[in-house]
Structure formats: C-alpha cells, structure tokens
Inverse folding.
C-alpha cells in the first residue's frame, strides 16, 4: 500500500516562473491537505480539499496560489509568478474518507514533501 | 480559538536518559491531539494520537504521552533516548483546521 506521494521532491524555479506541485493521496483517501514549512519553522496549514471541492483555503495566500483536487489524478498546488519568499517545503497529507469530513479523529498521512527553491 | 504551544524550541539529552517534550493546548472543546516526528529532509510520521479514549497514549518507538485536561497539556515522553530519536517533533491540534506547534528539535548526545 503506497503512501502519500509527492512530486517532484525538489523543484527549482526562477523568480516569475510557475511552480506546480503534485500530490497523490493514499489509496482510498479522498481528503487532501497542503502545508507549507518555511526554514526553521513549523508547518502552516494552507488548504483542505476533497475531490473537486475546496473545503477550506483560509491558509492560502490571496494571490498567486491555487489548489485543485480533480476527480481523476493528483491534487495540484500551483504557485504563479514565484518569488524568493515562496522557497519552502510543501507537504501534502491525506486522510480517509470514512467518518465526518474533517473529523478530528482522522489521522493525516504525510508525503515526503516538495522542496521549492526560488532563485 | 484553538491553539497549541510547544514550550521548548530545542531539547538536548544524553543517550539513555529520559526525554520530555512539552506541549500545551487551548481549546473550547475536547481536542484531538497528535505528536508527529520529522527526521531531516523527510516527511512527517505519526508517533501517537489522543482522541478522548485513554489519557495515557502509547506510540511507536517507545514514546508515550499523557493528556492532562486540568493542565491543558499533552507532553511527550520516552524513558530512554536513542541516537535515532534526534529529530523535530510537532505537537498537533486535530480538527477541521489542523494546527501545528512550532516544533521542538531534539538533540541526543552520545
């Protein structure tokens, strides 16, 4: 049973380019969460998605950032016109679809992260 | 509002001695609380979770945590540290919006 997969593991972009980060949840999981970890800091919640729906995007910057979780395929976190301050590790997590959506009992399983470096 | 506070940014112990990583929470309802570990350049791994069952929770790798409502605490302990325990540890408040503590970096000296 493969865990949460993220790719690429490392991504280098120049200022102004677009970054696309992919996350494939564990089999059977339909809840996906994105987090950002700045150097020497903890993880900060960005967005919570279910298939084809954004449930909570209160942690997403208002501009340049977007996320989707289509019916088929991985969840995508897109950062347009990247700036140096976007350099961070971006982690995706997934949780099972059983129980209440966003149930606090649902353990989140984390992927290995994508480390974005903006030059 | 819900919050979680890790009281120590860094903890250093000698191999074979006990480990104590402190976490306090604030919540208007009975929380679910988790401890995750992150090794360098790796993803996060769940150590243990509290979900209103037993207040003493046993996790992997010999770690355990005790939920104390009166102290609003969920401290992580291990009787004897191992070199492989050196990592970053996160106390996490589970809910509709997951809240991570700032993390505690554990150093283990030989």
């Amino acid at each position: 049973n493969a865990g949460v997969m993220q790719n690429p593991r490392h991504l280098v972009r120049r200022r102004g380019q677009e970054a696309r980060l992919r996350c494939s949840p564990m089999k059977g999981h339909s809840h996906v969460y994105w987090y950002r970890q700045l150097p020497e800091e903890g993880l900060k919640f960005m967005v919570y998605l279910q298939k084809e729906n954004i449930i909570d995007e209160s942690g997403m910057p208002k501009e340049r950032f977007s996320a989707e979780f289509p019916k088929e395929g991985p969840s995508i976190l897109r950062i347009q016109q990247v700036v140096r301050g976007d350099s961070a590790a971006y982690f995706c997590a997934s949780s099972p679809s059983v129980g209440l959506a966003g149930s606090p009992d649902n353990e989140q399983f984390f992927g290995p992260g994508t480390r974005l470096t903006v030059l | 509002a819900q919050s979680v506070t890790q009281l120590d940014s860094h903890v250093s112990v000698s191999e074979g001695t006990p480990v104590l990583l402190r976490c306090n929470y604030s919540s208007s309802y009975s929380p679910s609380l988790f401890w995750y570990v992150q090794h360098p350049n790796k993803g996060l791994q769940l150590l243990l979770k509290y979900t209103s069952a037993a207040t003493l929770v046993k996790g992997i790798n010999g770690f355990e945590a005790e939920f104390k409502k009166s102290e609003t605490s969920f401290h992580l302990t291990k009787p004897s540290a191992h070199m492989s325990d050196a990592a970053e540890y996160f106390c996490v408040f589970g809910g509709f919006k997951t809240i991570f503590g700032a993390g505690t970096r554990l150093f283990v000296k030989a």
In short: The interface with chain B takes residues 4, 33, 35, 41-45, 48, 56, 58-59, 91, 93, 102, 104-113, 115 of chain A (CB under 8 Å). Residues 53 and 69 of chain A are 7 Å apart (CA to CA). The first strand of chain A starts at residue 5 and ends at 7.
